[in-house]
């Protein structure tokens, strides 16, 4: 690979990814997936390290010490890495993988979304309850509409239609989040049986949506769908976000 494309770091305990230069958005930090051999922004990827007991540990915050390996943040790619023994091969050591690793990752991602929602709520950006959400929509103060997985179709569709129409008239996006259960919404917001919620614009809402998109990406089956979601979130084309590469193996130490 052209040495100007990726800045490398040779330390074994390098837990920080490299900034990619000359491809895609300026300053994008990217790593190579060991499964699909595609270089992607790290916010779309999972890092894994090996614990002292030899167990593979998902490092979703990209902070754990030790040599790491990177995988595209989709369930299919994690399962493929396990099935083909790519973790052991890339890390060059025996690795024990929990058969429930995907369930663990999903729980961690949901918890991350829940925490971001809680922070937005503490910042005063969240209203909950059908009536309050409807009022916030009418006032044009909603940047994100949240619907619990258990929401009844009639109520959910009524709010969604109103949100989409208002956002369209104002030339703004209309993200609707239905990735969380009522229990998750209730825990994050501090209410009971929360089904509908609305979030106003702000720094916390942007942080929340980044985490939601990460969870959605993990649950996606199609890499094209995932690339499309990432492009919508970043305002760039999918082609600018992924670079084919066959020279690296996707570990911290290249």
Plain-language structure description:
By secondary structure, this protein is an alpha+beta fold. It has two domains: 98 residues, Hypothetical Cytosolic Protein, Chain: A (2-Layer Sandwich); 108 residues, 60s Ribosomal Protein L30, Chain: A (2-Layer Sandwich). Helix content is 39%, strand content 15%. The protein is built from eight helices and eleven strands. The chain has a four-stranded antiparallel beta sheet, with no helix packed on it. Strands 7-10-8-9 form a four-stranded mixed beta sheet, with helices on both faces. A hairpin with a 5-residue loop joins strand 4 and strand 5. The radius of gyration is 20 Å and the shape is elongated. The N terminus is likely disordered.
Supply the helix-strand structural class.
alpha+beta
The main pleated sheet reads as: 4 strands, antiparallel
CATH topology of the largest domain: 60s Ribosomal Protein L30, Chain: A
> Multimeric state of these chains?
single chain
Radius of gyration: 20 Å
How many structural domains in the coordinates? 2
In CATH, what is the class of the largest domain?
Alpha Beta
Shape: elongated
Uncertain ranges:
1-24, 233-249
Tally of DSSP β-strands: 11
CATH architecture type of the largest domain: 2-Layer Sandwich
Mean pLDDT across every amino acid position: 83
CATH superfamily of the largest domain: Ribosomal protein L30/S12
Helicity range: 25-40%
- How far apart the termini lie comes to 11 Å
| Tally of contiguous helical segments | 8
Query: What order do the SSEs take from the amino end to the carboxyl end, as H and E?
Result: EEEEEEHHHEHEHEHEHHE
Strand content: 15-25%
Q: Order the strands across the largest sheet as they lie in space.
A: 1-2-3-11
